[in-house]
Amino acid sequence: MSDFEVIETSAGGRIKAWVKGVPLEAQARTQLENVAGLPFIHSHLAVMPDVHYGRGATVGSVIPTRGAIIPAAVGVDIGCGMMAIRTSLTAKDLPDSLSAIRSEIERKVPVGNGRGGNHKEAPARAATALKASGLADRLDVILKKHRRIQRTAFAKQLGTLGGGNHFIELCLDEADRVWVMLHSGSRGTGNILGTYFIQEAREALEKRVLSYHVPDKDLAFFVEGEALFDDYTEAVSWAQDYARLNREVMMDRVLFSLREHFPAFALEKEAVNCHHNYVEREHHFGADVWVTRKGAVRAGKDELGIIPGSMGAKSFIVRGKGHADSFCSCSHGAGRAMSRGEAKRRFSVEDHLAATEGVECRKDKGVIDETPMAYKDIDSVMAAQTDLVEVVHTLKQVVCVKG
Fold it and tell me: Mind listing the pLDDT tens digit for each residue in 227-256?
């Protein structure tokens, strides 16, 4: 008996979905069938238990493609992902009130979108890291080819959190050891690059003569061998590298904040930095293909990954089992159970206070759309993918910084 559900679509595509015990909304199922039916899908579409409705394709999808990439499936938060590191601190080292620590992190790491989410002046370490990375020169090459792409203050955004579901947390594991965990991506520049190439793909689709129907304009694609395909993969590679560096610089800033409050502490060897919105060339089922993980983490054999819960819920450091049918993937979190608008209509600040009891975090109406009840039950999500990953550490947040 398999651990996944096989869904055959009317267009001839096949879906393998790890959704036992978790809801699969009708809108999301329609999107899955739309994607699976495209002729350049390789073997099948893999669906993670945190699956939910997204732009063009569902969040929680693993999309293998032959000779084509769908920019909207990669999304606009290109390279978004997680980083976590274990410290030598324990729960006994933490003060009774964690509000000063949260405030210190918020001072060192700008949060939110717009100018308020930028460094006024990039920290010296961030500037040094950016110079060493070569990212500025690589971006110049992209912008010279595509002059309609807006230039942004990407240097001032390096080491910043952003808004929405991005967060910085202090967590305790099963042995009461303190972890630092954070979630962010390629910030404003990644968003602009993604938005630009999604529109370019739409315009290219209108000019294509195809022998098949593309059911959603957000499934517009670039074909390998086209100039725009090469330009897009160049831009995606830049954004993914920027996102990874952004998390590294941000982690440095958070650790710097902690050293303001604690005596010398060490960093343990267990550290993870993984994307969950990205595309990469991989080998599966006898072919080299492009694998888009839209809200999914690579979980190759013995690879470490991070599956965060919502505010107030558990999170997990996991080790991949290299399951071939999932294209060596697992979920990227709990997955939304409802839209942000629905969460704001349904829940009150009092509901949020109860759900985040014991966590030092924002408890105002501005984060109601991120309240734990807006997400699927993380235990059910983990139970649906026991053949994909094993749990190495279970983390419970005690501080959560939101944009």
Answer: 999 999 999 999 999 999 999 999 999 999
User: What percentage of the chain reaches a pLDDT higher than 70?
Assistant: 100
pLDDT band for position 12 (50/70/90)?
confident
Answer yes or no: are the C-beta atoms of 162 and 250 closer than 8 Å: no
Question: 183, 276, 332, 393: which is the annotated catalytic residue?
Answer: 332
Q: How many CB atoms lie within 10 A of CB 127?
A: 17
Mean of pLDDT over the chain: 95
C-alpha 332/C-alpha 59 separation (Å) is 9
Question: Please, which residues have CB within 8 angstroms of residue 51's CB and are 6 or more apart in sequence?
Answer: 17, 19, 22, 24, 28, 32, 58, 59, 60, 61, 295, 335
pLDDT for the residue numbered 99: 96
pLDDT number for residue 1: 47
Is 332 an active-site residue?
Answer: yes
Q: What is the pTM of this model?
A: 0.96
